[in-house]
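Many introductory courses stop at the sequence. We go one step further.
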Amino acid sequence: MTVVIILSCLIHTIVTLTVYDAFRVKAQTYKKIGGIPVKKTVFAAIFATAAAIAAVPAQARDQINIVGSSTVYPFATVVAERFGRASGNPTPTIESTGSGGGLKLFCEGVGENTPDITNSSSYIKQSQYDDCAEKGIDIIEVKIGYDGIAFANSKAGQKIDVTQKELFLALAAHVPGEKEGELIANPYETWNQINAKLPAVKIRVLGPPPTSGTRAAFVELVMQKGCAKFDWIKDLKKTDKAKYGEICDSMREDGAFVEAGENDNLIVQKLEADSSAFGIFGYSFLDQNSDKLQGASFAGVDITFENIADGSYPVSRPLHFFVKKQHIGVIPGILDFVNTFLSDAAQSEDGYLAEKGLIPLSGDELKAMRASVNAQKVMKM
């Protein structure tokens, strides 16, 4: 009898450890058969089945792990703090890696050593979605609100009114020459060389790196829109998409545009020190530093909470985070955290996220997003 009990305990222990290990194993140990992720070895599958029958789940950690966008970071941080206080669960850990960096970590696989949630200030690309799908990751999409992209400078400098075309001419690596179809290295050194109404100061713009969702959104909403004001470049989008992207998306590398990292607060500090420089970051950082900084207007439209909310400010975008469905129920509190983000206290017009500068979801959008999350609806692309 004693031998049977010992053997039973040993089997129980082996099964438990196998489950724990299976949860840690990266998804590249899986392959797809008929579109369904299947473990490469039958032996591991047998143990996983035995584990389910034995009902001995192994909890790898009890703290939610979040990575991603520096723009979403301040919103996620305040929600995490409130969630921790109200739920009794550990406050989630949040790392500001940039949207692209966050998705790269998120898509590494399923397991306690990978993030549960990644924040993003730009929508997930097809290639990023495919990376996750190859690792067997099911993604739940959560839209949390809207944000404007500020082009701002110190209040000690001149407030400007710009167009997307003017910013393209200031920041693109190559710009159109005198002849149609001609491209030349960007010759503009000062703003007034582009438009006499702009200040006669050297062009110096501090912005995020390519891994940033804010950078991706700025390229899409400013650089590409400005680029398309030239008809022959606009036509390239249909005939030579790669060339179109090369012209419209490439930023100067001669010092006029400076990649200042993922820390938007650092950009704010540098603008305070240099009144002639401009910076690119989310509206929330401008709102929180409105005593020091001022946002440029775009074609006469100021960057304000109201103008972003009604869509009149042209450089605005939705903010998201993406949840790893396989971690729900394994890492405790994930759905509760998401619902805290979508709560009335957070999302109302006078809620605590609006106080931080987030433009909240409308009533219908919020209702639909809550239903999608609680149904654990997996996104498809």
